[in-house]
Amino acid sequence: MAPDKSINERDKLQLQVSFHRAMNAGLLGTLFFGVLLLGFVVMHDTTKIVPPEVKRPYEIGSNYANKDYLLDMAGYVLGTVLTVTPETVDYNNKVILKMADPDGYAGLKTALDAAAMRLKQEQVTTIWISRKEEVSEQDKWVKVSGKLKTFIADKLTSEREKDYLVKFIITTSGRLYVSKIEEIVKRDPSANKPAADN
């Protein structure tokens, strides 16, 4: 083979190798961009679901749930925790603890167990009736105002207006956990007033 011909052949092969390297780099870049785009869509895409007993759609996504979902879940949680009898309280508490945030599980279990023990000892039945709700989608909490009726041996012993706060945690996969259930205790404005001088 003539030297000039072999040099031309070598140059052609080098051009082909350079072209294939550039194509491989381009394909690798496209693949990497596709993976990033897929990850973005998976993390930020919301899914609409309509459970059979609910008439409105919910939107749940990465660290996000819409107002309707938070309201309904808070109503379910409070109804389960506060509408109880001595016979149903343990089962209801187990249902809520399955929804508990792993980090706050111990505190929530302690509070629910203490309330259950009191209900059983005093043979108390309570019924919760929600009246008004306030929700924060950003902070994932719902404040619910309503009436708590207390019965002892089928006799109504008290009927009090109460406010409760239910806080949620939503994971990147869209799973909702209950992180806190607490009564909002209102301060008595008359307690802060100074006594009148005589």
Automatic annotation (TrEMBL):
Query: Which parts pass through the membrane?
Result: 21-43
Keywords annotated in UniProt? Membrane, Transmembrane, Transmembrane helix
Q: Which domain of life is it from?
A: Bacteria
* UniProt keyword Membrane present: yes
Instruction: Please give the InterPro entries that the UniProt record associates with this protein.
Output: Pilus_assembly_TraE (IPR007973)
For whether the record's keyword set contains Transmembrane, the answer is yes
User: Any idea what this protein is called?
Assistant: Conjugal transfer protein TraE
**Which source organism?**
Verminephrobacter aporrectodeae subsp. tuberculatae
Q: What is the lineage of its organism?
A: Bacteria, Pseudomonadati, Pseudomonadota, Betaproteobacteria, Burkholderiales
